């Protein structure tokens, strides 16, 4: 069997991905599907961490636009990621994958506090680590959290899971003529203002030379194929 090209990964899942076709909340069939995909690469002895957004439950930026204080709204969004993290943990443990949820905002009854060395220790014990509550600070997205955690744990790659096939020059769901990039340089992604991730996340990965792969998580076996080194989606690197 072909060996994985990445030994330690950060998988970034958006909250919207978890809602499936429901439009809001958590579609547990989607959770189960993602868990099965994660188990496939976990069985290959890949050390897996997951960063989850909270947009299916609460979006801080949208709340700010309606008049809510930005800091308060962002903290509410961070709490939403905890709900999603527990849902993914439950889905994984139901299929016998050991997990730990690590949170940037202390919630002792439901998760461990994020400590870098503890996270790495869990990975060394073959546990999937789920990072929730963002960075613990307002004004930072969960994309930036994923880039930050990737740097902190010395991940080989950041995998950005989406519902489209990669990074395009326009929104492919609105423009059928949008062209997908197979490869991009970090600076080009920043200059072109491609909104698949924010500039802070791109910059963090660029400074430490962590490649980003943007791919369609909803296509069967895509996650496993990416980890095995197949050219799927868009890779962003130097």
In short:
The protein is of the alpha/beta class and 238 residues long. It has nine helices and eleven strands. The chain has a single domain, classed as 3-Layer(aba) Sandwich (Carbamate kinase), CATH 3.40.1160.10.
Written overview of the protein:
By secondary structure, this protein is of the alpha/beta class. It has one domain (about 10-235): Acetylglutamate kinase-like (Carbamate kinase), CATH 3.40.1160.10. The chain has helices at about 15-20, 30-40, 60-65, 70-95, 115-125, 140-150, 185-190, 200-205, 220-225; strands at about 10-15, 45-50, 100-105, 110-115, 130, 155-160, 165-170, 180, 185, 210-215, 235. The protein has a 9-stranded mixed sheet with strand order 4-3-5-2-1-6-10-11-9, sandwiched between helices. Strands 7-8 form a two-stranded antiparallel sheet. Helix 2 (about 30-40) packs across helix 4 (about 70-95) and helix 6 runs parallel beside helix 8. The radius of gyration is 17 Å and the shape is globular. The mean pLDDT is about 95.
Produce the secondary structure layout.
Layout: E1 8-13, H1 15-18, H2 28-42, E2 47-52, H3 60-65, H4 70-94, E3 99-103, E4 112-113, H5 116-124, E5 128-132, H6 142-152, E6 157-162, E7 167-168, E8 180-181, E9 183-185, H7 186-191, H8 199-207, E10 212-216, H9 222-227, E11 234-237
Parallel strand pairs: 1-2, 1-6, 2-5, 3-4, 3-5, 6-10, 9-11
Antiparallel strand pairs: 7-8, 10-11
Helix pairs in contact: 2-4, 6-8
